[in-house]
Write a structure and sequence with these properties.
Elements (H helix, E strand, L loop, with lengths): L1 H8 L3 H27 L6 H22 L14 H32 L2 H23 L14 E4 L2 E3 L1 H23 L1 H11 L1 H6 L4 H26 L6 H16 L4 H21 L5 H15 L10
Antiparallel strand pairs: 1-2
Length: 311
């Protein structure tokens, strides 16, 4: 009995699962936090960028596979081939283009002529329209990048991880590091931070605010696409996959502090680990409620988040 209790205590698989889920949530939360900090509104259509990016990558990899079968061959120990990698890069560009088009058609006009509440409601409507369009085009049937089976590698303490999972954690960490360097070490990043602090003053000192807005849309949408590809590789691709992740995105962004890229990642890790822990302890049916509870707790205790600055 004692030995079985010790094995249970040492079973840290939920931690590995939570870190992986948190990495994906963190990538999506970065787009949410940048949009709110620079564009001054909560974009509910951000979840659809996740779905669109995953489907665009799936379509691109299928086309590459039809042209040359070698693109579908798995890379080493991983379940996917070079077709997914190349199509993923194109998918990130296409998702950035979708975000720019949405801003051009809808948000740009409303930002100058209506209040923030109107823009938020418009983003909610855009979310439903995009989700319906994706479901109409690709149907509601789940899709997969690959059906290759992988054997999980034991790491000790009850933790097992597949090569795909390990690679995606590394890629997520790399993307977050690049984002942090972009914001702290480049001229564009400094301009983005200036616009987030005070758009009018940034314009006075010569910052091209319109260009910064475009960069924000492209960056946030590309990271959302990356999160969608990760979900598609590890689980499956569905039209509602982005909508299901929207609440965890917002919870992570608020927990980390609006405008903070490291905060969004840390918030994503907290939400991911909390969800994985809930699945192991109280049941999978409570997983969706965890992000909501964390969001409420943060708003009550520290509305500015971990790295957020008081208004």
């Amino acid at each position: 009995m004692i030995s079985s209790l010790n094995l249970q205590l040492l079973d840290l698989q939920f931690l590995a699962d939570g870190i992986l889920a948190g990495a994906m949530i963190g990538l999506g939360a970065i787009g949410v936090t940048l949009t709110y900090a620079i564009l001054r509104f909560s974009n509910f259509a951000h979840g659809e960028f996740v779905s669109f990016g995953a489907y665009a990558t799936l379509l691109g990899s299928s086309l590459l596979g039809a042209i040359a079968g070698g693109f579908t061959e798995p890379i080493g120990p991983f379940s996917f081939g070079w077709g997914v990698v190349l199509a993923g890069l194109v998918g990130m560009l296409l998702t950035g283009g979708l975000a720019l088009a949405l801003d051009l058609v809808l948000f740009r006009h409303l930002r100058h002529k209506a209040g923030s509440i109107t823009v938020v409601i418009a983003s909610f409507g855009a979310s439903m329209a995009l989700r319906s369009a994706i479901e109409f085009i690709f149907t509601s049937r789940p899709a997969y990048f690959s059906r290759e089976l992988q054997i999980a590698m034991p790491l000790g303490l009850g933790v097992k991880i597949t090569p795909d999972q390990l690679l995606l954690i590394v890629i997520a960490a790399l993307l977050v590091t690049l984002m942090h360097l972009l914001l702290t070490r480049t001229r564009i990043g400094r301009s983005m931070r200036a616009v987030s602090e005070n758009p009018a003053l940034a314009r006075v000192v010569g910052v091209d605010v319109a260009s910064i807005v475009r960069v924000t849309w492209i960056t946030g949408a590309a990271l959302a696409c990356a999160a969608g590809i990760m979900v598609g590789i590890l689980v499956q691709i569905r039209p509602h996959m982005g909508f299901d992740l929207l609440l965890p995105f917002f919870a992570a962004a608020i927990l980390g502090g609006i405008g903070s890229v490291p905060g969004a990642l840390i918030g994503g890790l907290v939400v991911g680990i909390a969800e994985a822990s809930a699945v192991q302890t109280i049941g999978a049916e409570w997983r969706g409620a965890i992000a909501f509870l964390i969001l409420i707790a943060v708003l009550l205790v520290r509305p500015t988040g971990i790295f957020g600055k008081p208004a």
